[in-house]
Design goal:
single chain; mainly alpha; two-stranded antiparallel ribbon; 7 helices
């Protein structure tokens, strides 16, 4: 799949509707929120990579200060910082602007706007369909930004293989702590 000229690969499959009950609406809301957060954290990592290009040798403390500062920003502020710093393709800017607007709507107004829809199966299915569309929107934003980030991070020696190994190490640490 592509967003403009950016090859984003395949998206994760989105589950289908099973029952159309309230629990399923909340489950899809959670999945949409999860994907919105993934897109937001992709922007954090992208902004971090470009911020590091401006810095010389960093201590771990300075690195964490920069990251924590970026991580405390909202999606909108991160997007503004990235747009000021990087010449992004128009298709990506448009998609990220839409993702920002939809993320804010999801977080602040989704249930208000769909309040009466929860009362019947048809309304709940309509809500789930909207959430499925949002999941796709956020997945595309996440993958597109990650694709651009990979190019910058590779200049620091951080590759997908390195990230996978680091994730495995963290997972093993998690399992060790959980089983202790």
């Amino acid at each position: 799949m592509k967003l403009g000229q950016i090859d984003i690969g395949e998206l994760k499959a989105i589950p289908g509707i099973e029952l159309g009950d309230e629990k399923e609406v909340f489950a899809f809301y959670g999945l949409a929120s999860f994907n919105a957060q993934c897109a937001e954290k992709a922007l954090v990592n992208f902004a971090m990579a470009y911020k590091l290009l401006d810095e010389s040798i960093l201590s771990q403390e300075h690195w964490l200060d920069i990251y924590n500062n970026l991580n405390s920003n909202t999606f909108g502020r991160l997007l503004g910082q990235v747009k000021q710093r990087v010449d992004l393709p128009d298709e990506l800017i448009e998609h990220l602007n839409e993702s920002l607007a939809k993320r804010n709507w999801l977080a602040h107004d989704f249930f208000y706007d769909y309040a009466v829809h929860l009362r019947d199966e048809h309304g709940r299915i309509e809500m789930i369909n909207e959430l499925q569309n949002l999941i796709t929107l956020f997945q595309i934003a996440d993958k597109a930004v990650e694709n651009l980030s990979e190019k910058v991070w590779s200049s620091f020696g951080i590759t997908n293989e390195w990230l996978q190994k680091e994730m495995e190490v963290q997972y093993e640490e998690y399992l060790a702590e959980r089983n202790a």
